[in-house]
């Protein structure tokens, strides 16, 4: 059983008898107190979809939930649901747009290395790769002679995500985005 300090975003834990996915973690160190950090975790119940916050000391022991990760690819939208197909047996996994609103900004039909998280035979979340490649659909014109260390400008990607990119990047280019930090990493390899 891991300590609260070892839990990462998108881990699935059993808390209060419910299977919960950790959506966000804020670490704070109380002033003037001996001891460790406090971890405030935003979680949601995979069965009911209810969201709640809970606070743990860094030494609190938490139980990891039994889950399966399946390699999948985004296939299409069906009303309010994203449909992913298992890469091995083509099983369709339906995830409601609200449950993966954050992740939806980082994938399209070409995104590789997506995993669907399954708890008790039900798809509950997505695990994204560390970086993804997306196309810039709108940004200011590139500036000739701009160096890699110069200023940045906002760029809107094909998924609707807006990130800061170096001035030498232009509309139509594919770039790598770090999914954890939501930041520009480099130019894309594929295109």
From TrEMBL:
Coiled-coil ranges from the UniProt annotation: none
Domain of life, per lineage: Bacteria
Cited Pfam families: EFP, EFP_N, Elong-fact-P_C
Signal peptide: none
Entry-linked InterPro entries: Elong-fact-P_C (IPR015365), NA-bd_OB-fold (IPR012340), Rib_uL2_dom2 (IPR014722), Transl_elong_fac_P/YeiP (IPR020599), Transl_elong_KOW-like (IPR013185), Transl_elong_p-like_YeiP (IPR011897), Transl_elong_P/YeiP_cen (IPR001059), Transl_elong_P/YeiP_CS (IPR013852)
Ranges where the Translation elongation factor P/YeiP central domain occurs: 69-124
Protein name as catalogued: Elongation factor P-like protein
Lineage of producing organism: Bacteria, Pseudomonadati, Pseudomonadota, Gammaproteobacteria, Alteromonadales
The gene coding this protein: yeiP
